[in-house]
Amino acid sequence: MLGKGFILSPDQVRGLIERDPRNKDVLFPYLNGEDLNSRPDCSASRWVINFHDWSEERARSYPEVFAIVERLVKPERLKNN
Q: Domain segments of the chain: what residues?
């Protein structure tokens, strides 16, 4: 996972899923050691957007999530390439 723009808070994820339950397909818990050691329920303090190895066309079928990546990740990648 390259880019902080792929990382979301649990509140952001809840909102995305409430607005479109299909977004569950591309939103995943992003656990680290701190989560496992400090959270009794071992829940994730962060989530990550993952479009797998999908084509851009397929990823765009999740418009709100794709817009986040376009807004936060794409400019950084363009700047660094």
A: 4-80
Residue 1, pLDDT > 60, answer: no
Please check whether residue 7 is in contact with residue 48, taking contact to mean a CB–CB distance below 8 angstroms: yes
In whole angstroms, give the CA distance from residue 33 to residue 42: 10
For position 24, what pLDDT does the model report?
97
Rounded CA-CA distance 27/6 in Å is 10
Amino acid at the residue 21: P
Length of the chain: 81
Three-state SS annotation for the chain: CCCHHHEECHHHHHHHHHHCHHHHHHEEECCCHHHHHHCCCCCCCCEEECCCCCCHHHHCCCHHHHHHHHHHCHHHHHHHC
* Entry pTM: 0.78
